[in-house]
Amino acid sequence: MRIVTWNCNGALRKKYEFLAAFNADLLVIQECENPAEAAHGGYKEWAKNYLWVGDNKHKGLEIFAKEEIVLEALDWEDAYQGHQVKYFIPCQVDQSFQLLAVWAHYNNSPNFGYIGQLWKYLQLNKQHLKKAVIAGDFNSNAIWDEWDRWWNYSDVEKELKEVGIESLYHKFYDEIQGQESHPTFFMNRKVARAYHIDYVFACQELTKSLLNVEVGKVDEWLRISDHLPLICHFNNLNHKFTAPCLVH
């Protein structure tokens, strides 16, 4: 099974064919239009099995799956102390594992923009993360941690680690958070302004099935988006687990 996360930087109707080479079972795509309201016939035909959320039909968060995969949307809490966070899609995949799609958005929040949105979401729903993959654009990295802030990227990473969920990129490449050798985002598509802000996290039981982690090539992807895709290849995820993915 292959899981890919990619911020397409809008207009996925013009770019979805580039994803065919991955033969991905699950695609988590940020900044893409809602297929139900798209006028592009080819895009609508391609997007047969999906879940989408967004305030704007032209730019939201989506999970695409192969037709034989069953996606069941989960009703998780999204209002933290009266403030609705966005964008997140929790779902069950083939009654086998949970997938939480993430696009950490500014959300007009003066204090909890971007990674703060994910921190809030975890406070509401961390107890649900039993057999989970978390994939998406976190819009953050440990290099931007602030000493007087309790919801830094490192705080989110620590909370996930406490329930046995870790970054597959860092696991596979044996790299330290904040010292990534493969960036996933290029500010204004400039190679000199490169950062690692896209992630796939998974619980320990799923991590055992990990075969490979790749980041898309700059010369192939930077011309169509300011993000590179992050690809995770697993041996097999379509099985029932005998134990929850928690640290004992």
UniProtKB/TrEMBL annotation:
Residues 4-227 form the Endonuclease/exonuclease/phosphatase domain. Pfam families: Exo_endo_phos (PF03372). It comes from the Bacteria. Keywords: Endonuclease, Exonuclease, Hydrolase, Nuclease. One of its GO terms (molecular function) is endonuclease activity. Gene3D superfamilies: Endonuclease/exonuclease/phosphatase. This is Endonuclease/exonuclease/phosphatase family protein.
